[in-house]
Amino acid sequence: MSNLGFQLIELRLTGKDVQDAEVHFKKGLNVVCGPSDTGKTFILQCINYVLGAKNKPKDIDEAESYDTIILTIETYQNNNRYSLKRSLRGGNIEVFTEGDEPSVLKPTHDKDAEDTISYFLLKLSGLENRWIRKNKDGKKQSLSFRNIVHLCLIAEDQIIKEISPVLTGQNTSQTAELSIFRLLLTGVDDSSVIDKSTEKTSKMRIESKNELLQELIDKTIKEYDNLKIFGSYEELLEQMTSLEQSHGRTLEVLDVAQEQVAEVETVRSTSWNQLRQTESRLRVLSELGSRFSVLEKQYVSDLRRLEAIAETGRRLTEMSLNRCLVCGASSEYHNSEHRDALVNPGTVAESCVTESVKLRSLLADLKTTQADVKNELDDKIRLKQSLESTFESARRNIQESLKPQLKRLLTEYREREQKIASVKIALELQNRLREYKELVEEFTKQEKSEADASAGNALPAKGIDDFSLEVDKRLSAWNYPKAGRVTFSELDWDIMISGHRRASHGKGVRAITHSAFSLGLLGYCKHKGMPHPNFLIIDSPLVVYREPDPNDKSIVLDVKDSFYIDIASSFSDVQVIILENEDPPAHLVGSNGFNLIAFSKTSEGRYGFIPAQENKTA
Amino acid sequence: MMEYSCRFIAPFNGPIEIGLRAISILNDAYPNGYSLQRLIIFDYLSVHSDDISGGPIGLHPKTPHRSGELLVRRDILQKGLLLYMGRGLAEQRFEMEGVVYAATERTGAFLDVLETAYVADLRQRTGWLFDTFHTASDKELNALVQQNLGAWGAEFEMESVLWMEDEI
User: Fold this and answer.
1) Residue B47: what pLDDT?
2) Smallest Cα–Cα separation from A347: which of B123, B113, B83?
3) Chain B residues in contact with A324 (beta carbon < 8 A)
């Protein structure tokens, strides 16, 4: 049995120069009955207003002179009494308690403040500092007393609504209202719910990350297939190592081969150059040789001629000279001028001899030079031959063995290089693929854990079941015609009776079943020890039952009676206030646990909530 | 006399040598006479008989640009003829065709006295000359020479190689 919550003791209206309007309540069942316009609804509105409602009570003429509402409440636990005072014009609520200073409470709930009427009342009910989720993403709001008022104060327009009693009809607060219901059923609020509104974007990011990852994975697999390299990661590593080793060896061999080629190439080009030089020299020598040959012939010829001229000259000298052919004078008388015209053969003969000697010497020199040239020529020819063979063998070596070998080695080298590159890529791709897959796993895990966290949106099956049982108890106690047990529809967040949705019935049934729901909830909380303000005010649960409901054919009149009897007996340790037009069954009046406040709307008895005004004296 | 003996005059192709060749030629043609021009040409052919195909080996070696010899002989030849004419080994005649030179009856005996091999070879060649060209006219001979001036002595094309050697 929950000791939390409070009961209403007294509602009082005060004003200047007017008699207080007051009504007293007791524990258990209270019935305020009377015709319309006696202030029943006004009572409910005033209570609501003191408890922090935004809207002031309906402006009725009778209440014109009143300016203050005072509601006295008493906790079940310690019987602490508090008087809550609020001006009808608005403003804060003052709390008076015996022995303490009055404190001022703000009418609006503030999650960070404790000087609010909401906090005050929640604390008394055991529902302070609670958080409820208000949207699918887990955004939370601080529980305000106003959030649960609709479960304690049920106005006449509310009681006939088709929507679940849990809801107020405002769409924006639906999630919150469901959370409150859950809170009352389980006693557990939503403080631990993760606000995922900020995580909504991260969820999107996770999704797009997953998409991207999958694309990357697909791409990587395609690349890998294109490579056409097979083998496990370890096998590939081994392959890589052996490839690199043989690559290193090939490189060494390649270096040696290249050096070799360079060496032989040097020999080739050197011998080529020398060959060209030698050939050029040979040409020169050859030409010199033929020139010298000519010169030799010249000298030889000259020597013969000199010889002949000398002889001829001598012979001519021996012969007597006739007359000078120039002037005709005989030689004895000839003067030298004319002699100049002719050379003296004798002189010539002598100079020829001298000349021959010189010539012979020249010839001898020439012969020496010729011999030298010939020697050098022979040397150069031999040199040329040897150079030619050196050149040829070098050239052939390069052409036929060294170059092809080099080519082979280079090809081998390049092929292996490519192979190494491919294997490297393959290893890389495998690595990459593995990374991606790990990431996918991570994200999946993340998503799953988040999904798990958000699963707490549902209602606990046991709680629902027990709640439905409580509702069922009420309806059975009231002899409400139904078949089978009351069940709960999580679709509507409402009860199902005889397989039909509660809302499918007419107004009258809706009103009574709404009451069954609310009382069922109160009973549930009471039995389970769940926090609840533990009072309930219901406006007009039965009134519509007066006319036969076209939807329900057999209406048992003792439903009304059973209604009152049941509430009186089952809720005696909390408080239920019924506001009704009709009188309750007469035999109940005066019995224990039944507080009747009757408004007559006549001069007999109490007229209504607001007393008929008499002039107050002092 | 002193001035004269100090001046050295090359004996080659001088009056004695050229005159010698001239009287050898004239001796083979005796008693006919040859013009100076004809003698110039014959003189060239007597020492370069191998410039004519089928001719005997040349008396002198083939030298570059030897055909030039034909162009510079005239003066010396005249002097040579004078030398021998002074000893009665040649004579000058003035005939219808112009001035001709001819051998005398003493020319042959003079030549017989000379003993050198050169002279023997020379006489062989002049004999061949007479046999080959005596019947040719002066005009024909001129034409022959004209045609071959460029060819005789043009074998030495590689001479430039030597010059390049010098430069290097």
Assistant:
1) 93
2) B83
3) 86
Cβ of B161 within 8 Å of Cβ of A284? The answer is yes
Q: Are A170 and A115 in contact (CB under 8 A)?
A: no
Q: Let me know: does A229 contact A426? Beta carbons within 8 Å.
A: yes
Residue found by looking up tokens 């107004």 in the block:
A507
Span A280-339, pLDDT tens digits: 999 999 998 988 888 888 889 889 998 999 999 888 888 866 655 555 555 555 555 455
Residue of chain A whose Cα is closest to the Cα of B1: A336
Q: Which of B4, B83, B114 minimises the CB distance to A340?
A: B4
Measure CA A191 to chain center. 26
Distance CA(A211)–CA(A215), nearest Å, equals: 6
User: Which pair of tokens denotes residue A296?
Assistant: 């030799």
pLDDT band for position A559 (cuts 50, 70, 90): confident
The whole-angstrom separation of Cα A7 and Cα A10 is 9
> Which of 262-301 (A) contact B at CB < 8 A?
283-284, 287-288, 290-291, 294, 297-298, 300-301
Distance CA B134, CA B157 (A): 34
Residue pair A317/A349 in contact (Cβ under 8 Å)? The answer is yes
Question: What CA–CA distance (Å, rounded) separates A258 from A569?
Answer: 114
CB pairs under 8 A between A and B: 110
CB A323 within 8 Å of CB A338:
no
Distance of alpha carbon A116 from alpha carbon A144, whole angstroms: 10
d(CA A438, CA A433): 9
Q: What is the DSSP string of A174-224?
A: HHHHHHHHHHHHHS--STTS---HHHHHHHHHHHHHHHHHHHHHHHHHHHH
> What separation in angstroms does the CA of A428 have from each of A209, A236, A434, A439?
21, 11, 10, 17
Which among B77, B84, B92, B118 is the top mutation candidate for probing chain A, defined by the most A β-carbons within 10 Å of its own β-carbon? Answer: B118
Q: What is the predicted pLDDT for the residue at A507?
A: 87
Write out the H or E segment, with its range, that includes residue A158.
helix A156-159
Global pTM?
Answer: 0.50
Using CB atoms within 10 A of its CB, is residue A98 exposed (0-12), middle (13-18) or buried (19+)?
A: exposed
Indicate yes or no: CB of A301 within 8 angstroms of CB of B60: yes
Q: Is the peptide bond before A345 cis (omega within 30 degrees of 0)?
A: no
Selection from B158, B157, B147 nearest residue B52 by Cα: B147
In this prediction, residue A450 carries a pLDDT of 64
The tokens of A469 are what? 């049982």
Unique residue bearing structure tokens 């009961």: A7
Measured distance CA(B94)–CA(A12) in Å, rounded: 192
* E-only strand ranges, A27-77: 28-33, 66-75
CB contact under 8 A, A297 and B14: no
Structural contact between residues A588 and A22, judged by C-beta atoms closer than 8 angstroms:
no
The Cβ of residue A210 has, within 10 Å, a number of other Cβ atoms equal to 15
Least confident stretch, A386-390, A399-403, A598-602: A598-602
ipTM given for this complex: 0.82
Residue whose pair of structure tokens reads 């389970």 in the numeric block: A528
Q: What CA–CA distance (Å, rounded) separates A60 from A66?
A: 10
**Using CA atoms, how far apart are residues A160 and A157, in angstroms rounded to an integer?**
6
Angle at B39 between CA B36 and CA B40, to 5 degrees: 90
